[in-house]
Amino acid sequence: TGGHADTDMPTLSPRLNRILEALPLVPGMRVLEVGCGPGALARAMAARIGTGHVLGIDRSARAVAQAIAGSAKPIADGRLSFRREAAETFALAPGEAPFDLVVAVRVGALDGRHSGARAWPRLRAALAPGGRIFVDGREVPMARDA
Predict the structure, then answer these.
(1) What pLDDT does residue 68 have?
(2) What is 19-56 written as a DSSP string?
(3) Measured distance CA(109)–CA(86) in Å, rounded
(4) Distance (Å, rounded) from C-alpha 17 to C-alpha 130?
(5) How far apart are CA 83 and CA 4, in angstroms?
(6) Cα–Cα distance between 124 and 102 in angstroms, integer?
């Protein structure tokens, strides 16, 4: 059988790999991925942050089901979880710690394709002090009220 020696490391498209390399990931951090789709980037981030945690959210039940199905080991290890949720309605669960980093790739509510007026305040409210937001691999200034 071919493939990677480390089966925990997913294969990413060149575009997702460039975005992954641009993120300020550090061990132990908490990351929220908005619009996680089938979970490839979420798995890759979870593999890089050691004891940290990645929560992937997507409005599509099918995408979340695919993400969970492909992520058994990092989910079992407590490094990764997924929820069906839209950016516009996201809120921290009771007792859930805020996130150090919010990441979104090709999310219409955040990349200018649709109004993000409802999504931005929700995501900012989920950030820890000093937390940062990256959309399509670029940091978004926190003053933005898009």
Answers:
(1) 97
(2) HHHHS---TT-EEEEES-TTSHHHHHHHHHSTT-EEEE
(3) 10
(4) 25
(5) 28
(6) 9
Compute how many other C-beta atoms are within 10 angstroms of the C-beta atom of residue 64: 21
Question: Cα–Cα distances in Å, from 118 out to 72, 114, 122?
Answer: 32, 11, 7
Q: What is the mean pLDDT of residues 7-11?
A: 54
Q: Quote the DSSP letter at residue 65.
A: H
> In this structure, are residues 23 and 132 in contact, taking their beta carbons and an 8 Å threshold?
no
* Token couple for 18: 């460039």
Task: Tell me the pTM.
Answer: 0.87
Measure the CA–CA gap between 21 and 68, rounded to whole angstroms: 24
pLDDT in tens, 72-123: 999 999 999 999 999 989 999 999 999 999 998 887 767 666 656 788 889 9
Query: Looking at the DSSP assignment, which residues form a beta bridge with residue 81?
Result: 55
The two structure tokens encoding residue 99 = 């996130």
